[in-house]
Specification:
The chain is of the alpha/beta class. 37% of the residues lie in helices and 12% in strands. Strands 4-3-5-6-7 form a five-stranded parallel sheet. 32% of the residues are buried.
Length: 228
Amino acid sequence: MPLVNFDTREDFDAQYRFGAEPEGHPPGRSEIKLGYTRAMLWEECRRRAERLVNLFGWSVDTGIVIIGAGFGWTGESLEQDFGYRDVWQVDSSSWVLEVQDKDEMGDIYHAIKLVGLDPRMGEGLDKAIGLIARGGGPGPRRRSRRPILKSLEDAGDAIRVALTEHLLPCLSDPEILGLISQIKSLGGGIRRFHLTGESGGPEYNWRSLWEWKELLPFDTFTNSREIV
């Protein structure tokens, strides 16, 4: 089992909680807060995709599989903003696979109600409209061309780049080596890239980029600023 599990909605809620009013809120009520939602993470994932393109310069016809993709927002941006044509995305979370084609309106409405506002009128309605717009407008959580897959083996047969998205720190070393073996089984010539942070909660398997390189010397690592 992974060191940090993201199988259920509760698992995500335990790790993700964002203040949803960066512009501030009246002193008489609490700030609206949201978890793992497009409203909170879509723009960050667009910036992440831009950094990856600038760092690695993959051609738009490169077959890419993103592992640990969540609802696929980074891959969606690669398609939508940068014209990538062959992006596959994989995530083992039961919750992600179950609700990827459902919207997050219920999450937004619930968060607004928790601070005493009505999302159907007045200030509450304004907040709801703003949060929905921040996530790219109304629609399902997952808007990439292809659905999120459960199994890496279901990705296309023209994969040339495998990218893990903040996944390695959630895994033990044996699990990481097992994942690398799975990627290798897809075929030869696949380049492996890993997007990872370097610090956080003690339950994670944190390493510096150079320490990751020691574990997987033939792979490429980035924290969105440096590459090793």
